[in-house]
């Protein structure tokens, strides 16, 4: 995060702030291992820590949501609340609903 103002400019700083607020609201903490960035394709600002069930993102339109990336197929699942995502992640353990259907 040393290049904070090099990586985040203009409205992206506001998006980062929204992400940090969502993280606080979810009862999570950021530390030196937490990563953040701007998705060059979507324009979304994201913050992620390996201790979390997924990442938080703020879109161009300032929608804040949580993203669970399936380790199995790479599919991304979006959730409004961290708790809902955490529940989803624990339900499938390293998979997603889609993978489970294929395996079942
Ligand atoms: Zn999957």
Describe, in plain words, how this protein is organized in 3D.
The chain is built from four helices and five strands; from the N terminus they run ααβββββαα. It is α+β, with helices and mostly antiparallel strands and 104 residues long. Zinc ion binds next to α4.
Describe the protein's topology:
Elements: H1 4-7, H2 11-25, E1 35-38, E2 45-48, E3 55-58, E4 64-69, E5 76-79, H3 82-92, H4 97-103
Antiparallel strand pairs: 1-2, 2-3, 3-4, 4-5
Bound molecules: zinc ion.
The site of zinc ion has 8 residues, from helix 4.
Annotation keywords:
104 residues; alpha+beta; five-stranded antiparallel sheet; 4 helices; 5 strands; 36% helix; binds zinc ion
What is this structure, in a nutshell?
By secondary structure, this protein is an alpha+beta fold. It is 36% helix and 21% strand.
Integer-rounded radius of gyration:
14 Å
**Biggest pleated sheet:** 5 strands, antiparallel
Residue-averaged pLDDT: 93
Number of distinct beta strands: 5
Beta-strand fraction estimate:
15-25%
Distance between the termini: 42 Å
**Structural shape:** globular
Ligand names: zinc ion
Secondary structure class reads alpha+beta
**Helix and strand pattern:** HHEEEEEHH
Number of helices: 4
Enumerate the spans where pLDDT stays under 50 for 5 or more consecutive residues. none
Q: How much helix, percentage-wise, in residues?
A: 25-40%
Strand arrangement within the widest β-sheet reads: 1-2-3-4-5
């Amino acid at each position: 995060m040393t290049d904070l103002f090099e990586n985040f400019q203009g409205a992206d700083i506001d998006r980062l702030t929204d992400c940090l607020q969502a993280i606080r609201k979810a009862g999570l903490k950021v530390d030196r291992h937490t990563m953040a960035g701007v998705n060059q394709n979507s324009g979304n600002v994201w913050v992620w820590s390996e201790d979390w069930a997924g990442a938080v993102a703020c879109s161009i339109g300032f929608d804040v949501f949580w993203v669970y990336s399936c380790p199995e197929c790479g599919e991304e699942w979006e959730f409004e609340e961290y708790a809902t995502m955490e529940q989803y992640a624990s339900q499938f353990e390293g998979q997603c609903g889609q993978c489970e259907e294929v395996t079942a």
